[in-house]
Design a protein that fits this description.
With about 600 residues, the chain is α+β, with helices and mostly antiparallel strands. The chain folds into four domains: about 35 residues, no CATH class; about 90 residues, Immunoglobulin-like; about 220 residues, Glycosyltransferase (Alpha/alpha barrel); about 80 residues, no CATH class. Helix content is about 35%, strand content about 15%. The chain has 16 helices and 16 strands. The strands form five sheets. A five-stranded mixed beta sheet has the order 3-10-9-6-7, with no helix packed on it. Helix 11 packs parallel to helix 13. The longest helix has 29 residues. It is globular and about 65 Å long.
């Protein structure tokens, strides 16, 4: 029997991954009749390892108001969410539909109380899935209020003209006055830096790709992999520094050199040696330093030159976006991706309304921050990966904190984790401490190593305890360059000793307890660091569950062993990730 058109259509629209089709074919003497009853089935499997999971979880208490909602994604659906005061959903407190992502943070604050929530999907043809399981959560009184503005409202906050990153056009006059007045020494430092760049300009020749016969992970491979990152940063950060200093009143030659470097780097193959998917360590800094230079030097570019830059960033931004979105919203534990998303956000701001899709990049990045960031942490301020990667990743994130504050009026320190993040360093590494806890590259860290990041945390969050920590360790470290100048405009923080704080602290979500007898001085402190974490050995953390470290009076006594050479090496995998390397009981030589 030949297939009629109607029968073909029935098969074409069926998608067994998300639709159950009941097909009744009636054979008569005439044409084939196809009758379809369709049911869209919602995938509600529990989260697996590496997945973010359903939020708010059933029976949970939200630390922010409103909470962020997350559910398992399914392709080709938009979403509807309901939040009510009872499980029958007769009294809706919040309702939204047409949601693009499988995450959603409402743009309004909810009244404190207990709520039920559910969601469902909808196809482009208008068919609905079943409603999800109902989950309940509670919003306490006095919870941090942190709604996410609706997309159009959020994008409307971005300046229509340039510059857009780290400062707004309307703040330029104020910054120029500061550069001639109370911040002249910082400005003069920028000028000296620019003169050095002009005297020895960075190379703008496109860096090399890997030879065809090169072994990935080998020392020669690593030299190119990391070397291209350093090379890219030197070129484009130099350009950004020149362009920013010229904005403050520096000579025109600074801007012209910034423009030359920018346009030279625009000639590099967007998917070549510095392409994001080819080498993300070079692709990420290209994206955000290029974007910064573009917005700082924008008024010197012709329309044709702007279009050259826009075409380059369209390719690079889309490549990053396709890699990250929507995957990162449900599986956000990839280490490098946790840097990439906010760098894509910078590009989205710089090229908003100038590059098709830039608004999508920015909206995605903001949704990451509100709904699934940070991931190696808890609301108590704890960090799974250890103090080295805590420092590395959050130092870079503080750039996004500056950018969000200026461009969108969003304060990252309203978020529970960031409001407490500095206490992680204070309790793990009181002043004078040697050793940075469990995690890669932590063994040789000292409390003094935390000062640059804690200086930023204290200033951005206006936290007197964190400022005290910084001053106990020799005083704040000022960020250099244009970022240091912008941060120099933040209000000064009055230090306050942690006399009102307990000497020990539990970071429950990351399963770590820091027990101190003295929080003021490691030379007078006896410290036990204990770990029993749900994160296990993921990323840069260690399989150290039920293990501990012991230090006394400034000396490390019972410690973990070994030091990571290369991530994933034989030593790293078979020793550092093994329970045997820690103070932990094994059974027949095997850990947990």
């Amino acid at each position: 029997m030949k297939s009629t058109k109607s029968e073909t259509d029935c098969r074409r629209f069926a998608n067994p991954t998300r639709i159950v089709w009941l097909v009744l074919i009636v054979v008569t003497a005439g044409p084939v009749v196809c009758t379809v009853a369709a049911e869209l089935v919602l995938d509600q499997k529990p989260a697996e390892p590496g997945e973010w999971g359903f939020h708010p979880a059933a029976g949970s208490t939200s630390q922010v108001n409103p909470p962020s909602f997350t559910w398992r994604p399914q392709p080709n659906l938009t979403w509807e969410i309901q939040c009510a005061h009872g499980p029958n959903f007769e009294n809706l407190a919040y309702h939204a539909e047409g949601i693009e992502f499988n995450v959603h943070c409402p743009p309004i604050v909810l009244e404190p109380g207990t709520y039920a929530w559910r969601y469902r999907g909808k196809t482009e043809a208008g068919q609905y899935t079943n409603w999800s399981h109902v989950r309940s959560f509670t919003i306490p009184t006095n919870t941090t209020k942190m709604p996410l503005p609706a997309r159009e409202e959020l994008l409307s906050r971005i300046p229509k003209t340039h510059p857009r990153l780290f400062l707004r056009p309307e703040k330029l006059d104020e910054l120029r006055r500061l550069a001639k007045g109370t911040m002249k020494s910082q400005y003069d430092g920028l000028v000296r830096q620019c003169e050095k760049i002009l005297a020895d300009p960075p190379s703008t020749k496109e860096p090399p790709k890997y030879p065809n016969d090169m072994v990935r992970g080998s020392d020669p491979w690593s030299e190119i992999w990391w070397g291209n990152r350093v090379y890219t940063i030197k070129a484009l950060d130099s350009a950004a520094t020149l362009a920013f200093t010229r904005l403050l009143g520096g000579p025109d030659k600074f801007g012209q050199e910034a423009k030359r470097i920018l346009l030279d780097c625009a000639k590099w193959d967007p998917k070549g040696s510095t392409g994001y998917r080819y080498n993300d360590e070079a692709g990420m800094p290209f994206a955000y330093y290029f974007s910064r230079t573009y917005t700082f030097v924008n008024d010197l570019l012709t329309e044709d030159e702007k279009n050259i830059c826009r075409d380059v960033m369209k390719i690079r931004g889309d490549e990053m976006y396709r890699h990250l979105c929507p995957r990162h919203l449900w599986a956000p534990y990839a280490s490098h991706s946790n840097r990439a998303w906010h760098k894509l956000g910078e590009a989205g701001i710089a090229f908003l309304n100038e590059v098709e899709g830039a608004g999508d990049w920015l909206w995605f990045a903001t949704n990451v921050f509100f709904n699934v960031y940070p991931v190696w942490s808890d609301d108590d301020g704890g960090w799974h990966e250890g103090s080295s990667y805590w420092y590395s990743y959050l130092s870079r994130f503080t750039w996004w904190t500056d950018v969000m504050r200026e461009a969108m009026g969003i304060d990252a320190y309203d978020k529970p984790f960031f409001s407490k993040a500095g206490y992680y360093a204070m309790y793990l590494m009181p002043p004078g401490t040697q050793g940075g806890g469990f995690g890669d590259l932590c063994a040789n860290r000292t409390a003094r190593d935390n000062v640059p990041l804690m200086s930023v945390f204290a200033a951005q969050a206006n936290n007197p305890h964190w400022q005290w920590y910084v001053e106990q360790l020799g005083g704040p470290t000022q960020a250099g360059g244009y970022i240091g100048f912008v941060r120099g405009t933040l209000p000064k923080v009055q230090a306050s000793a942690p006399d009102d704080l307990p000497t020990s602290r539990l970071f429950a979500g990351t399963g770590q307890a820091y027990l101190n007898s003295n929080l003021i001085d490691a030379a007078k402190n006896v410290q036990v660091v204990f770990k029993s974490s749900p994160f296990g050995t993921q990323s840069h953390g260690y399989e150290a569950n039920n293990s501990f470290l012991l230090s006394a009076y400034g000396k490390r006594l019972l410690i973990g062993t070994g030091y990571r050479d290369h991530y994933g090496s034989e030593h790293h995998t078979n020793w550092m990730w093994s329970t045997r390397s820690t103070n932990c009981i094994t059974v027949n030589g095997r850990g947990h």
